[in-house]
Amino acid sequence: MSAVFEALASRRADRAFCDGCHRPRGRDGLGCADCHGAVGNFGVRNGLLALDLDGPVRGPTGMAGDRAAHETAASDYLASADLCGTCHEVDGPGPFRESPYAHWRASTAAARGETCASCHLEEREEQPIADFDGLTARPGLIHRAVGPDDGAIAAPLYGRVPIAIVIEDGRRLVTIDNRSNGHAFPDGASFLRTVDVVIRTEGRTVRSIPLASELSGGPLPSDRARAVPRGVPAGEVMRVPIAEGDEVCLVVERYRADLLEALGLEAEAAGFTTCAEGPG
Ligand code: HEC
Ligand code: HEC
Ligand code: HEC
Ligand code: HEC
Fold first, then answer.
1. Does the beta carbon of 253 lie inside 6 Å of ligand 2?
2. What is the per-residue pLDDT across 130-150, written as a single tens digit (0 to 9) for each?
3. 264, exposed or middle or buried, with CB in 10 Å at 0-12, 13-18, 19+?
4. Is 252 in the pocket of ligand 2 (CB under 6 A)?
5. If you take atom 8 of ligand 2, which residue's CA is the nearest one?
6. Among the listed residues 75, 80, 76, 123, the one whose alpha carbon sits nearest the alpha carbon of residue 104
7. Ligand 1, closest atom to CA 189?
8. Residue 125 contacts residue 238 (beta carbons within 8 Å)
9. pLDDT, tens digit, for every residue of 45-104?
10. Fewer CB atoms < 10 Å away: N or C end of the chain?
11. How many Cα atoms occupy the beta-carbon half-sphere of 105 within 13 Å?
């Protein structure tokens, strides 16, 4: 687990609640069975998954062939947003609030029928789904974007948000276009991060617009602190006027510096920067 998770969870009396999503079944990170053994939930929030770990492995087709090491069954639940939302809708305590599922439900992406998996699992070239002789190739999905904890996760995700410099009605603007996203930008545990639109003139920062949730009540998420949402809602475009020659970048830090300081942890080099292109 990350040092930040350990530092936060170990300070809390409700640590088991944290572990319910972060260390399901008492082991670090998500295992295959945490999704492929899920059969439903007791509410789309707070990790209330219903798991059937003795039953068949659930998959899109239920057809694994007779050499699989386990029974298989077809399941629509696996591809549903409810599965992801059960862990990605966190309803407290304190600042621990994440709402990508609620935001997704209200989005045009949901209306178009795109689930979390449609965007977050990438299609890959056809190949056998297991390392056995004689298995035929079939289309499959890359799970990278749902298997985080590799320290570099922010880069593939944040790289997908279009930030551009445009001229509209003769005005020079920087735009952050969140129309094709399925939820707010940023979303999830954004109260732990910094996400800033940084505007520089001749290399000097003239303005910095914070998009990550503001943590009111101090840097250390305590029960009294509240995460106040900012950022760009799903379906909207943020427009900020800039001057000719300005350079604009989106600068992401995985953890807020004041949080690391309050926890007595060293800064991690896991940030991500992407700069806007457009008429120079
Ligand atoms: C309902 C499931 C759920 C519960 C309960 C939960 N979290 Fe999380 N947490 C998540 C998800 C999902 C993410 C990833 C979201 C993102 O990155 O935007 C996350 C991200 C985090 C992160 C950033 C990733 C990392 O490991 O550095 C930390 C730290 C964290 N949670 C701490 C906690 C603590 C402490 C608790 C208990 C008070 C807790 N969480 C309870 C689901 C949960
Ligand atoms: C059993 C709970 C659980 C389920 C079910 C689950 N997740 Fe997660 N997910 C997590 C936790 C916990 C993290 C954060 C882990 C960490 O950073 O240590 C996470 C991280 C992520 C991240 C990376 C966030 C970031 O900022 O790095 C994405 C994207 C994600 N999950 C998408 C999905 C999708 C899509 C689904 C459904 C197919 C899904 N998750 C199902 C618990 C879950
Ligand atoms: C966060 C949830 C989640 C986790 C964890 C997860 N999967 Fe999946 N998996 C999915 C979803 C969602 C699909 C697509 C379902 C659909 O399209 O109906 C899928 C599809 C698959 C498929 C069929 C598609 C293909 O690629 O051929 C296989 C095989 C698979 N997963 C294996 C695994 C294995 C092995 C692990 C553990 C290393 C794992 N999965 C972990 C959510 C998950
Ligand atoms: C239409 C595509 C789309 C859909 C649908 C979608 N996402 Fe995302 N997701 C993205 C993009 C693009 C990003 C990176 C930008 C951002 O953070 O919003 C992202 C980022 C995330 C993050 C990291 C948040 C952050 O800002 O660090 C989490 C967690 C996540 N998605 C979970 C989910 C869950 C859970 C669902 C379903 C309830 C879902 N997503 C549906 C496209 C999508």
1. no
2. 666 666 665 555 555 543 334
3. exposed
4. no
5. 146
6. 80
7. 18
8. no
9. 999 999 998 989 898 888 776 667 778 899 999 989 999 999 999 998 888 999 999 999
10. C
11. 9
